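If your schedule permits, I should be very grateful for your opinion on a structural question. What I wish to show you is a protein chain and, alongside it, a tokenised description of its three-dimensional fold. Would you kindly read the sequence against the tokens and tell me how you understand this chain to fold? Here, with my thanks, is the record as I have it:

===
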Amino acid sequence: MENSIKKSNRPPYGILAILMIGAFITFLNNTLLNIALPSIMMDLKVEPSTVQWLTTGFMLVNGVLIPTTAFLIQKYSVRHLFLIAIGLFTIGTVLAGFAHAFPLLLAGRMIQASGSAIMMPLLMNVMLVSFPIEKRGTAMGFFGLIMMAAPAIGPTLSGWIIENYDWRMLFHFVTPIAVIVLLVGFFLLKDKKDKVEIRLDFLSVLLSSAGFGGLLYGFSSAGKNGWDSPQVYLTIIIGVVALIWFILRQSKMERPMLNFGVFKYPMFALSSSISMVLNMAMFSGMLLLPIYVQTIRGISPMDAGLMMLPGAILMALMSPITGKLFDKIGGRILAVIGLAITTITTYYFSKLSLDTTYTHLIILNSIRMLGISMVMMPVSTNGLNQLPARFYPHGTAMNNTLNQVSGAIGTALLVTLMSNRTETHATELAAEAMKHATGQVSASAAAEMKQQIMMKAMLEGINDAFFVATFIAGVALVLAFFIKRSKQTEDPMAKKPEGNKLAKLAEN
């Protein structure tokens, strides 16, 4: 991989530009669909539990395919992988755009996911081998700008399209851009790769799919079905057993599909832990805030998207600045300040009321996004910086896989907590209302009282979930104090005559 793109000391800006545009439209597509789910339910006449598969299925395909990207990046050239990734994404987008039945829409969405799963690890790996450590923070910062800009405009753009056009226009809007990127990549990407004699171990693929897929599906289903559902705990058990078997198999293989040896490097292990914990806390805002503003406050999807927009834009604009600061001062100061901001603002989100102002929500969410922007990319880059070059594909694949899993776990925990606490508060509020009720209550008054109780109970459930997310963010803050500035570790394989050939093959 390194030799296939790095012919001189000058980074391959042309390749990076094409990859970033491809990554941008895949990230944009991820955020476009969420706000369209109610429209899809009505048009295709499907239940909420069914339409949810458009997001769950996308996440499952990512969780299954991302672990294989370490092998793919070592085996194939950037051109080869990019054209496959953007080609699959384009095919999936066209199929979804013309789908008039839910199975076709789901199939298109999952084909999109198979392309998206390759794109991000590929781009991150190219950036790692293209820039020296002292300039890597700035480079990753601009990558973060692309990654955050798509979610920034996604909900607002989606809300506008849904209000003015059919939901299929979301896919028709992306299709011509994807086709242009595919053609540009086909004609401009010219890198080649020396033939590498490695084979994919299909038992490892099977165990990885069952392990990560089982965990993702189990935790994703927990919020809807409850932890006592066999569909939940059996898939989680299967996932854990398969994952343990997968890890043990990888540790015995000379050329593992996904090398868990990356966790022997302390800064990488620490950065992965912080990213996972922060991911779980971050989902509180992404998940609970839309529920609060739309369900409890009755704010329209368009206005809800606009409310999230300033924070997302601030997060995107801060990414290059944070990258430059990382190159100068390292990751610890940024992570500690950012996580302190995130923890404090998450706590204030646990104090929401029925009359919290729209402006207050915008300001608080924007400050929270500012804190998160100071953590995600610097922490991840600092961890990857410690790895020898041949571990880059494994490090990027591991980070992306763990982000998927931690996101699913965080979502499940927070949804379950919100649901359980809502029921508890509803029971308490109903008992309190009955205690103070005098005389007969009309049916309309009883219905109105019940609705008010449920709204108040859901509000308290959301506040409780935010309060727990505060402690989760606090754990990441404590871990951040142990960050040290990373230097690339010398590859131990290079010192061994029998390992020298393997190390060179991996770099190629």
